[in-house]
Design a protein that fits this description.
Blueprint: H1 4-15, E1 23-25, E2 32-34, H2 39-56, H3 64-78, E3 89-93, E4 100-102, E5 107-111, H4 112-115, H5 121-136, H6 139-145, H7 151-155, H8 171-176, H9 189-205, H10 211-226, H11 232-237, H12 242-253, H13 266-278, H14 280-294, H15 298-311, H16 316-328, H17 332-345, H18 350-362, H19 366-379, H20 384-396, H21 400-413, H22 418-429
Helix pairs in contact: 1-21, 3-5, 5-9, 5-10, 9-12, 10-12, 14-15, 14-16, 15-16, 16-17, 16-18, 17-18, 18-19, 18-20, 19-20, 20-21, 21-22
The structure holds zinc ion.
């Protein structure tokens, strides 16, 4: 049994701030700055959180050639950065919305939704260059040190995922709130300016045309006026303004004028991304489906997913979203089947198992749910949604000891929200805590 003191110690251990390392020389400016987060902390934080975010974006595309292409471009740009020694890695994630992001250890993702809208390798180099700029200038670490960053980034807490009230009727609520961008750092406008300017320096040093950055900014600016919903998450994490476009343009014409005549690599990019760019109309519908589900319009989300699946019958993200929409529409049996299709298409990604488990909970098939969440936790260790709902299923089966262990593990990560309150209440009722 867990005494209260031990229980509190568990909580404290997970809440502990990274080891104090005081002042550090900023790799970009060369100046000393208050830095409480060391490089090891950045890498540890990255390893803990990036898999959760990649999974929330439906995992990496199962297209080895495309991932290898983005990796090749990314590493070429990263070699020119102020922190070439970081363990950079690159992947294309299945999410249909437009975004790119970096974790502080150098794990970087671009979504299908943004890659399909680029037109040259130079634009891709600019996009990953911007993210490498955030890593090089240690923006996340600096914001953690100044205490301005969301606590989410520190503890790996996914408090926002706990928005649903626990209980059988609320399983579906969990599904709609599994949105994108929960774990991403929010950068300031100054950070954005610096990342743009660093990104441009790195991509030009890697041999690309600075026009790639100008083209990228023009594309993003166009998206933000034509389809504001599509880039909400992108601009929540990377604020966009006309000023960024103007800055890119003047840097390209002045500081990097000599490189402006370099030919842009359009053919190579077109060849590497042909299949993906053909998906763009389907991706737009999938993005609309995700938004509809977030707005609690599951019927609309289902119809859109089914349209997408008529073009792309094996699309993992579409199958997972369809299962979530069915669950939200109180069609748990159909959700179970769609989730099973998703798992068959991509057995290495956890979201299929998670939504299968949620559907099983809804159908009161608790033993099956426990198996699903155990499988999800094998694929995606420490995922709080899987931990809570496995505990809930074990609880329903009367396995108090195993349920208490999962509730405790959940509370180590998430300390607010209805699910955390529910887990704590059960532990109190069982006298695991007072
Ligand atoms: Zn940014």
């Amino acid at each position: 049994m867990l005494s209260r003191r031990r229980f509190l110690a568990f909580l404290a251990a997970s809440a502990a701030a990274p080891v104090l390392s005081g002042c550090a020389v900023n790799p970009v400016t060369g100046r000393n700055q208050l830095m409480l987060v060391g490089e090891d902390d950045e890498i540890a934080m990255d390893r803990r959180q990036s898999p959760q975010q990649f999974s929330a974006d439906f995992g990496p595309m199962q297209d080895a050639a495309l991932n290898a292409y983005v990796t090749e471009v990314g590493l070429a740009v990263a070699r020119q950065s102020h922190r070439p020694q970081m363990p950079y890695s690159f992947r294309v994630v299945n999410a249909p919305y437009a975004n790119a992001y970096a974790f502080p250890g150098g794990s970087i993702a671009v979504t299908r939704g943004i890659l399909a809208r680029l037109e040259s390798e130079d634009e891709l180099a600019a996009l990953v260059g911007h993210e490498i700029g955030h890593v090089s200038a240690r923006h996340t670490a600096a914001r953690l040190s100044s205490g301005t960053v969301l606590s989410v980034v520190l503890g790996g807490a996914v408090a926002a995922l706990g928005a649903a009230k626990p209980g059988l009727q609320d399983v579906a609520g969990d599904v709609a709130s599994l949105g994108a961008g929960m774990l991403l750092a929010q950068y300031s406008r100054d950070d954005e300016r610096e990342a743009d300017s660093l990104g441009m320096a790195y991509m030009v040093a890697a041999g690309y045309s600075p026009q790639g950055m100008v083209d990228l900014m023009a594309m993003l600016r166009g998206l933000s006026t034509r389809e504001p919903g599509l880039v909400e998450v992108l601009f929540a994490t990377h604020p966009m303004s006309d000023e960024r476009f103007t800055q890119a343009q003047s840097l390209a014409r002045q500081r990097y004028a000599a490189a402006l005549s370099r030919p842009r690599r359009r053919e190579r990019f077109a060849a590497a991304t042909a299949r993906l760019r053909a998906q763009l109309p389907a991706l737009e519908r999938l993005e609309a489906a995700q938004r509809a589900l977030g707005n609690k319009q599951p019927a609309q989300a289902r119809a859109l997913c089914q349209q997408v699946l008529s073009f792309l019958p094996d699309d993992y993200a579409a199958l997972v979203l369809l299962a979530r929409a069915e669950l939200a529409a109180d069609m748990a049996q159909a959700a179970l089947q769609s989730a099973q299709r998703a798992r068959a298409v991509n057995p290495t990604e956890a979201q299929g198992a998670i939504v299968h488990g949620l559907a099983a909970v809804r159908l009161r098939r608790f033993a099956e749910a426990v198996q699903d969440f155990s499988e999800a936790l094998r694929l995606l260790p420490e995922n709080p949604t899987s931990i809570f709902w496995r505990g809930y299923a074990l609880d329903a089966m009367g396995d108090r000891q195993a349920a208490a262990e999962d509730y405790r593990r959940y509370l180590v990560q998430v300390r607010s929200g209805p699910q955390a309150q529910y887990a704590l209440r059960r532990l109190r009722e069982w006298k695991y805590v007072r």
